[in-house]
Amino acid sequence: xxxxxxxxxxxxxxxxxxxxxxxxxxxxxxxxxxxxxxxxxxxxxxxxxxxxxxxxxxxxxxxxxxxxxxxxxxxxxxxxxxxxxxxxxxxxxxxxxxxxxxxxxxxxxxxxxxxxxxxxxxxxxxxxxxxxxxxxxxxxxxxxxxxxxxxxxxxxxxxxxxxxxxxxxxxxxxxxxxxxxxxxxxxxxxxxxxxxxxxxxxxxxxxxxxxxxxxxxxxxxxxxxxxxxxxxxxxxxxxxxxxxxxxxxxxxxxxxxxxxxxxxxxxxxxxxxxxxxxxxxxxxxxxxxxxxxxxxxxxxxxxxxxxxxxxxxxxxxxxxxxxxxxxxxxxxxxxxxxxxxxxxxxxxxxxxxxxxxxxxxxxxxxxxxxxxxxxxxxxxxxxxxxxxxxxxxxxxxxxxxxxxxxxxxxxxxxx
Length: 415
Ligand code: UD1
Known about the structure:
Elements: E1 4-7, E2 12-17, H1 22-32, E3 39-42, H2 48-59, E4 63-67, E5 70-74, H3 85-88, H4 96-105, E6 107-111, H5 124-132, E7 136-140, E8 143-147, E9 155-157, H6 163-173, E10 179-183, H7 189-200, E11 204-206, E12 212-216, E13 224-227, H8 232-245, E14 246-252, H9 260-269, E15 272-275, E16 279-283, E17 292-294, H10 303-313, E18 319-323, H11 332-339, E19 343-347, E20 350-354, E21 363-365, H12 369-381, E22 385-389, H13 392-395, H14 401-407, E23 411-414
Parallel strand pairs: 2-14, 3-13, 9-10, 17-18, 21-22
Antiparallel strand pairs: 1-22, 1-23, 3-5, 4-5, 6-8, 7-8, 10-12, 11-12, 14-16, 15-16, 18-20, 19-20
Helix pairs in contact: 1-2, 1-4, 1-7, 4-6, 5-6, 6-7, 8-10, 8-12, 10-12, 11-12
This protein binds uridine-diphosphate-N-acetylglucosamine (UD1).
Residues 23, 26, 92-93, 119-126, 160, 162-165, 186, 302-304, 326-327 line the site of uridine-diphosphate-N-acetylglucosamine (UD1).
């Protein structure tokens, strides 16, 4: 396990660039095997989650070539094999192989996926959707066998607008016979990006980005070129960092509309923002107003960014609150902030942050990906030295984080 050491209190400035979206590429790589030819993907972030998916693809005899941010996936010689827990537990998104292998071969054998421990995170909606398409599911310990002689398009209503279930069901339905409609689909930008990728290969998907997605099954998917959208959570993380510590930090290569809910809250806090077509320039204010946020599905306030914003709320003049409505265990970062001197109370799904407090560096633990990133921000704000243990979580979702932050003036080291 890696450790990140930070010396806090340094002013940040200059420019920082956002990489391709983790939650897009982790859908796109498993989706690529649906293709019968090679696919070419640009703006691919270099992340441990991407490495882990590459390992699974190579295990399935899929050729993956990576050159900087370009990736070529060649699935021509692939074989369908069981994906054991050693492979699947490395990242949650391994569950997208359920949809893609089912769609391609009508048969998948896979262990239950891993990922960040931020709540129960069941996959019942994915499985219910596969069944509706005609699949039979057998569970043997933590292994699932999902199979179908033929997948037939149907109407699927998701009880919750789940990102994972929406993408997985698109993957399973792309080559199904006839028309599938996903009602109450999730609307996150990553879903639009994966749907566009599939359409670039010849799929017939419409309505991605709305709550009703229509998929007309096709027989063959062909070679394509595709670009991964900028990572809105990484973008939000950098903007919050600028709001805490910078004079005119330019966060570039982002789609500002994707982080509107965050930008609105930052304005409410008094943060200075200049929003351009693909950049945001952010400066710290004299004082921060406290704010209340509630996490919601897109375009509501993202659950991933509540953890990030919590580190800034510590500086606000008064009490801020966070209502976490998506996950039941996404406040682990708050307990770590307390170790750094923050005054915080957690009551069920609500967190209270009593500001302003001055954070002091100490040893803390990254308990999940965004908690880790939130602690990087806290460490940069704090006086003195912060050591973040379990830093591998952070490397799952932030490309070259140490180099990027060093370039804007942070003192940060990965060991
Ligand atoms: C995705 C993102 C994650 C983000 C989350 C919410 C990826 C790889 N990960 O996770 O970074 O935090 O969206 O924006 O894209 N649920 C069920 N049954 C299911 C599926 C989900 O009850 O079958 C529940 C989950 O337990 C959770 C909620 O629905 O409480 C949201 O889950 P979902 O939208 O599926 O998130 P993920 O795809 O896991």
